[in-house]
Amino acid sequence: MTFPWQLEPWIRFGAFAGVLALLALAELAAPRRRQAVGRALRWPANLGIVALDTLLVRLLFPIAAVGAAIFAEERGWGLFNLLALPAWAEITLAVIILDLLIYGQHVLFHAVPSLWRVHRVHHADLEFDVTTGLRFHPIEILLSMAIKIAAVMMLGAAALAVLIFEVLLNATAMWSHSNLRLPPSIDRLLRHLFVTPDMHRVHHSILPRETHSNFGFNLALWDKMFGTYRHQPEAGHEGMTIGIPHFREQRELKLHRLLLQPFRTEGK
Question: How high is the pLDDT of residue 265?
Answer without folding.
Answer: 80
